[in-house]
């Protein structure tokens, strides 16, 4: 990076800067003429200078020049105008100059803005590019929130300054010098007064602003540190709650905010003091002009036109001068910011840019051995992790690495995956250093997975396929308008130094995953999902998801058939009572009162429970059917029973998990409400109190809660109200509520609800698991399993994949690595969150079943269970950073050594 911001700007925009400087120089001509014209108007047609006689005329626009070697040349002889005509003509010229000066300013400012935005885009891209090339160890020393803040906020002023870097001093300085020169031409002493004040402003104000720069630097540093600290709080929220340190964090944040407040308050005081002095000096000059200029006019040494022109010219002088002083402050401020950015991002050694060059062609397989020679690794503090290890790993060989925690096995695997760089020694393939190989080779032919996982905010599928998105594989199809827009964006990207890679292209390398295209991709990745035992998790996510009927047509079309198949299967296995189907004419005892009343689903977020309850039609139905009083009485009974049974229990008691209508925090609220409503009469309660009580009844399920509150009469009344609700439902409400229909798919309901078309009986043990298992078999039988998996793969994993469990994240991380079908797989205890039995099963799936003989790549696995080493061709035993033993399983298990101790 350039150390000086001015050099960086000039290096990348010098042609544009030269052009705009030429435009600025051209703009000075009409700017100067606009100062002289008021004097001509006042002295000429207004005061009559040159129009003394009746019918007197003067020449207007006479254009003639004496050119060397040519002589006198007349371009236009001009027009003869009388006094009034001359007044109008000069006024129109003044108006034309105003318009012309305005157009110059418009063009210059627009050009500056575009230039600045391009530079901002360029520098942000370059900084992110450098982040992508930081050495791995550097990320242990920086906070991600601070880096993000610098790229997002702190470089923003640099973009605005780019357009002003050379143009503003030229434009503003030119305007100030032009105005000052004009004043001096009119009267030398008035010009000296103006020059003196300008000199004081130019010298005193910048010196005073040095304090502002120092305060601004402190404000920037403290704000960045605050951002990093907030990021730490968000990332470590579990640690904070687990250690009761939330008040410590509050004290820390309050202290930081106090420091920022103190700096900003001091900054405001100094800023407005400087502004006061600057404004005072600017206002003193007109006073001197009026006093001294007026005196000179009274003495006859200065005519009125000159005085008016001088005052008019000075009126335009403080503006450019003040902006020039502001520009100088901004220059120093931005240079300070740039210096801090330079220090933060000028990291050595950076990864060579050639290592990350785009490669669209397929990369050949790695057929040479992985040779490790005298490898030594240290941690950030300098402690030795691996000490002079030499070993060779052949293609197609499976190697188990075992050793206790801290033995160096994990660090050794990290070095093979290029997660850490060696202190000494080398890792080579075919004689080439692993660190010198392009990432297009190592990122495709070598896969690394550990227990540490990270997923980007997006769908499960986009994160699973992330390891296949190396380069755009196909060009997107654009219509004419989109093509023009893309072309414009590409041109701007080139001008800003950005790549023209199209994000809308298809980046997935299907062939690398063993597929020919998106059509058969699921069939190619399903063995990988099965091997890491995540298929059932994805199936469960799909069952809990709503289905986009425009995309997943096959699933929505086969739902009715699935319902029938499920009923037949349950009947054949004697499980008829496990699911209670929906029936429009009957009350479903396994569903809530609210579900029975609605008999459908709401299109969220357009319709919610609160909006439905507030709808006039719904309220009218409750009044007409008498359900208001019935459900109010039912809600009171629920509240009394819940308060009586649970008010003495601690909030974390497992009984509260059975309450769907009330939480532990609600118990005191309803306890107080019951005391207030001792009369129990519906009329005595306020609308808010009635709503709070009735809401309890909506979530009530008799077989689950067993308070004995649902009588046959009340159930019949609810079914009758349901029929009345759907029979007369208004159009606006009907569009937002989808009624259950046994012969139709319900888009706003989950896939599970669509297939069940009913509710699972609560009395049946493990009913939900049995239903899911049967559904999986039905999906397979109807050739819909892949379609359902596709629905589950659309699940949003959240920030950092936090909507998935740790077990699911580690399985997904392993699947992502396997999907690349690399030549070398390095697994560094990738399944530490799973129990040992599941770890063993997944390891066997990968080593024995997934990679058949002839297609088996080299697998290097740091094992948590030494007994699994029996499946591998060779074992490397690490202890205290060194390679203690090496050999196959029979050899090492028979020796009376360290490996035998790990097996016992």
TrEMBL record:
GO terms for cellular component: plasma membrane. One of its GO terms (molecular function) is ATP binding. Residues 370-902 form the ABC transporter domain. Residues 75-326 form the ABC transmembrane type-1 domain. CDD domains: ABC_6TM_exporters. The chain crosses the membrane at residues 15-33, 87-108, 176-205, 280-298. Pfam families: ABC_membrane (PF00664), ABC_tran (PF00005). Keywords: ATP-binding, Membrane, Nucleotide-binding, Plasmid, Transmembrane, Transmembrane helix. Its main location: membrane. SUPFAM superfamilies: ABC transporter transmembrane region (SSF90123), P-loop containing nucleoside triphosphate hydrolases (SSF52540). Gene3D superfamilies: ABC transporter type 1, transmembrane domain, P-loop containing nucleotide triphosphate hydrolases. It is found in: Cell membrane. The keyword Transmembrane applies. It comes from the Bacteria. It is a multi-pass membrane protein. PANTHER family: ATP-BINDING CASSETTE SUB-FAMILY B, HAEMOLYSIN SECRETION ATP-BINDING PROTEIN. This is ABC transporter ATP-binding protein. It comes from Rhizobium acidisoli.
